[in-house]
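Summary: Need help interpreting a holo structure output

Steps to reproduce:
1. Submit the protein chain below together with the SMILES for adenosine-5'-diphosphate-glucose.
2. Request a joint structure prediction with the ligand placed.
3. Inspect the structure token block that comes back.

Expected: a single structure record containing both the chain and the bound molecule.
Actual: see attached output.

Input attached:
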Amino acid sequence: MHIVMISAELAPVAKVGGLADVVFGLSRELEIRGNAVEIILPKYDCMWYDEIWGLHKIWENLWVPWYGSGVNCSVWFGFVHGRKCFFIEPHSPDNFFDRGSFYGFHDDPLRFAFFCKAAMEFMHKGNKRPDIIHCHDWQTGLIPVLLFEIYERLGMNRQRVVYTIHNFKHQGITGEAVLWATGLCRPEYYFHHDRLRDNFNNTAINLMKGGIVYSNYVNTVSPHHSWEARFTDQGYGLGQTLAIHHYKFGGILNGVDYDVWNPETDRFIPSHYNVWNVESKYGNKDALRERLWLRKEFKPIVAYVGRLDAQKGVHLIQHALFYTLERGGQFVMLGAGGDRGINNHFWHLKHYLNENADCHLEIGFNEQLAHLIYAGADICIVPSLFEPCGLAQLIAMRYGSVPVVRAVGGLVDTVFDRDNSDKLPEDRNGYVFKDADFKGLESALSRALGLWFGYPKEFRRLITNALSFDSSWAQSGQRYIEVYDHIRCK
Ligand SMILES: Nc1ncnc2c1ncn2[C@@H]1O[C@H](COP(=O)(O)OP(=O)(O)O[C@H]2O[C@H](CO)[C@@H](O)[C@H](O)[C@H]2O)[C@@H](O)[C@H]1O
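--- attached output ---
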């Protein structure tokens, strides 16, 4: 099959969070299984250009209709760790993708609406006719709308769309300008409740809703979260839309890329290991302490790696820090976020704890350090308020760090409590808590720390169970292929 992925992120060149990892990992898995995969991305100025091989311009003067006129674009091609990627570069005074960061601008909906329009125009004029167009999150919600309302009539009538939702919280709710800009020039038609009109704001359109309504198949990234999105407030107002389209909605669990995240070969960690020689993991604990100037003592390291966003349970991350210190452990955090208030809060905390040799807060994005933390930590916390899938717990387990997680979304599908689970003992791989408060967190973290201090052999067994958990793309890659095969035009 020929599959075109359209995404705002791709690891490692344009990564803000888990979306980037998934687009890379899934594309690779699909290729391994014999499919032809191409990825279309914006050409941001802030990408990691040294991770793109053979970047060159393949198209000059791609004219993309925009409002009454158009924007002239160049298209570039290059390989990102073997993946075939096209990068769209608009030449317009709006400077859509030359702003030093990926998101966070008042015109984000317009920027990514332009990206959608340009991607469609590129496929149309470049004669690309994939079997499947796979798009992701609100940024690409307009793709199926444009395909079925405009480009189908221009010859793209055999293409089918899969739309994967990684985060319901960000939906791209915006005004009608986006419609005029992209050539969807009948606002009264698109403002219909059955199409793009936001379920709560009559005067706004919702790009994610458009993606759901128009795609041939829609999924979120774990079975449990697909249930939450429909039946709890975690659908952020789209539950009703999902109910209408339930026959084409499901949950497919994320995997992690076993090449990128592999403690046996990882180029960012000094001491390699696997389930048969777990002792070597501790070389990384030493290296992590050295790198972050942590005291070298007989203590467990508890870590948090992730975006600093309300979604991630910020108050619980902070509480885990103080609780760990109080219990005689060490705490490491690596995080960055779009929210200035949350960022400032952690900067204050960092200054406050500056002299403490048992903790380190690193604020910023640092891929290499993330690898070392996953390998060097004993315990990783994921105390999210909601979590569509969560990669942090999967990567932590892949590196034999015991996950302590809240029972939401994909965390429910992947982490099974050591003491309270209906799983076999060898399948229990971490600790789980329910309530998003201090007591809830402590109920799990205290057991993890207690086991580390009091029962090292048992803790070691938990590490082995975590290391044995299968979080590869194999099964989920197969699931996506089945979906593609089911909907594609034969
Ligand atoms: N400061 C930093 N430095 C280095 N690396 C950092 C970092 N902050 C985060 N990362 C990395 O980014 C990824 C985060 O993935 P997650 O799945 O945990 O969260 P995210 O909320 O971004 O993704 C959304 O999409 C994914 C993919 O579908 C879902 O799993 C998830 O539930 C959903 O919220 C991990 O690879 C992590 O190591």
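--- end attachment ---

Reviewer comment: Residues 2-255+474-487 form a domain with the Rossmann fold fold (CATH 3.40.50.2000). Residues 76 and 336 are 29 Å apart (CA to CA).
Status: needs-info
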